TrEMBL record:
This is ABC transporter permease. Belongs to the binding-protein-dependent transport system permease family. The lineage of its organism: Bacteria, Pseudomonadati, Pseudomonadota, Betaproteobacteria, Burkholderiales. InterPro entries: BP-dependent_transpt_permease, MetI-like, MetI-like_sf. The keyword RNA-binding does not apply.
């Protein structure tokens, strides 16, 4: 009597595990670093306030069991200051990046879908804004309106709207020339429908990748403004201002300068590595070649 063996169905990994595996080891490490800083920005200051981790110690104290990264020029714990600074570095940069990318993408869709006159007018205005050096423009705005958090967000967003617009427009113009967009116009669909349903879904992936790069640029811009004393003002502090406050003790209390600088480097490198390891990015690059 023969026994019929019934093959068992293969056990497939969970969808989220399958998606995470596409990032590779480097991408997963970069994602972990990015998630850590986001969680530190959201929950870190609250946890530090409850635990009383700020403490007080000697000025520029070295690394110890009590102060893992030493202390600053007022005897405050550097680790606590870096975690507090994540709220303004990550939060302000994320808000400015989302504002810049959203405005740039919307203007790009409008330029591609509306016609030659609107496209030409938007392109000329934003090209003029691109011609102004970003640091100089930021210094002028901050000098004129102060360095409050809303002003910094709007300033950084305005500076990087033209870059997002140019990337979005180059993608949207190509999509706008496709046959299915022509069909949509032929059946009577309006400009808003074409922008929202036909063009935007096809440029969303590249624009999200550009958003990550734009975030890195904004972080570096805000850090440089804070280093010059024109960014986030005391008692608030971001990583750039932490470097500026303690730069005089680089020889004796080096960790008070190196720790926030390393935080900036880890955040920007993590975002770049995550973008480089996005699923399908390498395949698209090979196809482009």
């Amino acid at each position: 009597m023969s026994v019929v063996s019934i093959p068992l169905p293969a056990v497939r990994p969970a969808p989220w595990r399958h998606r995470l595996a596409k990032f590779g080891p480097t991408g997963l490490c970069a994602m972990a670093v990015l998630i850590f800083w986001v969680l530190a920005a959201v929950f870190g200051p609250t946890l530090l306030a409850r635990s009383g981790a700020h403490g007080g110690g000697a000025v520029f104290a070295p690394i110890s069991a009590q102060h893992w990264l030493g202390t600053d020029y007022l005897g405050r714990d550097i680790l606590a200051r870096v975690i507090e600074g994540a709220r303004y570095t990550v939060g302000v940069a994320m808000a400015a990046t989302l504002l810049a990318s959203s405005a740039g993408t919307l203007l790009a869709l409008l330029a591609a879908a509306s016609g030659r006159w609107i496209d030409g007018a938007l392109s000329r205005v934003l090209d003029t804004l691109t011609a102004i050096p970003s640091k100089m423009f930021a210094l002028l705005i901050v000098a004129g309106f102060g360095s409050s958090v809303p002003v910094l967000i709007v300033t950084a967003a305005v500076i990087y709207v033209p870059g997002a617009y140019r990337i979005g427009r180059s993608l949207a113009v190509n999509i706008n020339a496709m046959d299915y967009v022509t069909v949509a116009r032929t059946r009577g669909e309006g400009t808003w429908y074409v922008m929202r349903r036909e063009i935007l879904p096809n440029i969303l992936g590249p624009m999200l990748a550009d958003l990550g790069l734009r975030f890195v640029y904004v972080v570096l811009l805000l850090a440089s403004l804070s280093f010059l004393g024109l960014g986030v003002q005391p008692p608030m502090a971001d990583w750039g201002s932490l470097v500026r406050e303690n730069i005089g003790a680089l020889a004796d209390g080096g960790t008070s300068v190196i720790a926030p600088a390393a935080a900036i480097a880890s955040l920007t490198i993590a975002v770049n590595l995550l973008i480089d390891n996005l699923p399908g990015r390498k395949a698209r690059e090979r196809g482009a070649r």
